[in-house]
Design goal:
Strand content: 15-25%
Helix content: 25-40%
CATH topology of one domain: Nucleotidyltransferase, domain 5
Number of helices: 19
Number of strands: 24
Radius of gyration: 21 Å
Distance between the termini: 55 Å
CATH architecture of one domain: 2-Layer Sandwich
Shape: globular
Length: 493
């Protein structure tokens, strides 16, 4: 009796099987590339992803045949949706959040509905990174595609649909659309009316941990799964990651170090919601009842990958490449400033016409210094948001670092030093997979409640304490980084 978690990210598909006692039994992953069919465009190759998911599921299922999978749950990145038909055919690739299409539509929305009023419905700051502007762009520029699509589903719900589940939207994904009322927990009549988008193309909204169908017989047979395996909605990957970090109560925060770095604090719904709005903090459903979550995020691991491909491209086949690059990092904080706008930043506001910058280079600057500066500044970019959280009564007390970047002791320590709080690293840093498996277990009775699921599935491997001297240096460097974009803005368009 084992639990299968599937996590679909911006550049990786991952699957892992866990025993009911929380032991990892098998894992597999496949990488995919972001497509750039035109300048400013960024898309997910969804057909390739569906093929990759089938491969990795088959691989992990065959590796644990002695403990067959009884339930699976799927989580994925937010905002992106996939046009599909009732016959379960993918019609097109999926537009990513940092794709620049949809800007004119988000600007029109912002003109028509005041930001504070809008926040009272959807609890987000309007921007083109969300789903609604992308759907409006598709309807305007590809009306035939829009009309042929029976459903527009988030990536994980799309993959669940292809497995055999009903078409639906997990509430944590619905929050990312700009079409959902966070407080009534349903599609917003006001926002649907403004956009003229048909509710019938979105499916019903379900909570995280809801069983949404079973794996179809033919697919189960092809992948080696037992018959009638329940499929559980796990929703937005950042919410599943927070759960997989053990963030089951207010006051805890996940620190995802993946393609994006995302700080995700968990909290009860504040009495003064507009105070969150004033600091640019969104409110989204957590995967657990009565809990909410906010996100501070921007590209981070994507910048490290860029560095790897640009400065160590000839060594990409080396199994220990990241370890060797990390060994080159200096111990002390660097004085190099990196503006992490290599792709349009999406928090706290979308900036479509910016670009990255690296300042403070000398002829004696080393490769390791540049890499560490990228890690530092990608993380420093989020510090003002962490400080704002404290101002609204949600101070960070402990972070839990997960994701591929959490394997780097140096980067985890950088986070502890920048935010000035201890950072825990779980024994299994792939918290999105762990969180999905926890939801699979909660949905089908393997775990009594979230506390039992966390105590079973999440064990701390190491605690990183902040260096307060370094923290002071980073606070000063944060102010320099805040000044950087305004000073360079006219050169980066």
């Amino acid at each position: 009796m084992s639990l299968l978690g599937i996590d679909i990210g911006t550049t990786l598909c991952k699957a892992a099987v866990f025993s009911a006692a929380g032991l990892p039994l098998a894992s597999a992953q496949r990488e995919h590339n972001i497509l750039h069919p035109a300048p400013g465009y960024a898309e997910l190759p969804v057909r390739e992803i569906w093929g990759n998911v089938q491969q990795i599921v088959s691989e992990v299922v065959s590796a644990c045949s002695a403990d067959p999978v009884t339930t699976l749950a799927i989580t994925s990145l937010g905002e992106a949706v996939v046009p599909v038909t009732n016959a379960r055919h993918i019609l097109a690739d999926s537009i990513l959040c940092f794709d620049q299409r949809g800007l004119t539509h988000s600007e029109a929305l912002a003109r028509d509905i005041p930001a504070e009023e809008f926040y009272g419905i959807n609890a987000n700051l309007i921007g083109p990174n969300f789903t609604m502007p992308k759907l409006l762009w598709i309807r305007e520029h590809h009306p035939d595609l829009f009309d042929r699509a029976d459903w527009f589903l988030p990536v994980s719900e799309c993959i669940a649909f292809l497995f055999g589940a009903e078409p639906c939207f997990c509430d944590s994904h619905a929050c990312r659309t700009l079409l959902y009322d966070v407080f009534t927990r349903d599609w917003s009549p006001r926002l649907l009316e403004w956009s003229q988008l048909p509710r019938g193309k979105l499916g019903r909204v379900v909570s995280g941990g809801t069983v949404i169908g079973t794996v179809a017989g033919q697919i189960a047979s092809e992948l080696g799964l037992p018959a009638n395996v329940p499929i559980v909605a796990a929703g937005h990957d950042q919410c599943a990651t927070a759960l997989g970090c053990g963030c089951t109560q207010a006051g805890m925060a996940a620190c995802g170090l993946g393609t994006f770095q995302c700080i995700a604090p968990v909290f009860a719904l504040p009495s003064d919601r507009l105070q969150m709005f004033r600091f640019g903090l969104n409110i989204e459903h957590h995967t657990l009842p009565a809990l909410y979550i906010t996100f501070l995020y921007n590209q981070a691991g994507a910048l490290v990958k860029w560095f790897r491909d640009t400065f160590a491209g000839d060594q990409r086949g080396s199994a220990d490449l990241y370890a060797r690059l990390n060994a080159e990092l200096p111990e002390a904080p660097t004085k190099i400033l990196v503006l992490p706008h290599f792709a349009p930043p999406v928090w706290p506001r979308f900036i479509p016409d910016s670009a990255g910058a690296i300042l403070g280079l000398h002829t004696h600057t080393t490769r390791g210094e540049i890499l560490k500066a990228i890690m530092e500044c990608a993380t420093l970019y989020l510090l003002p948001g962490v400080e704002a959280l404290a101002n609204v009564g949600q101070p960070l007390e402990t972070l839990v670092a997960v994701g591929g970047g959490a394997a780097s002791d140096a980067w985890v320590q950088i986070n502890a030093d920048i935010f000035g709080v201890p950072v825990l690293r779980p024994r299994n840093p792939e918290a999105g997979l762990v969180g999905a498996a926890m939801l699979a277990g909660l949905a089908t009775g393997t775990f009594r409640d979230a506390a039992q699921a966390a105590s079973t599935m999440v064990q701390v491997e190491r605690r990183f304490e902040p260096d307060q001297a370094n923290h002071g240096l980073y606070v000063a460097k944060s102010q320099q980084l805040l000044d950087l974009y305004p000073a360079l803005q006219r050169f980066l368009a």
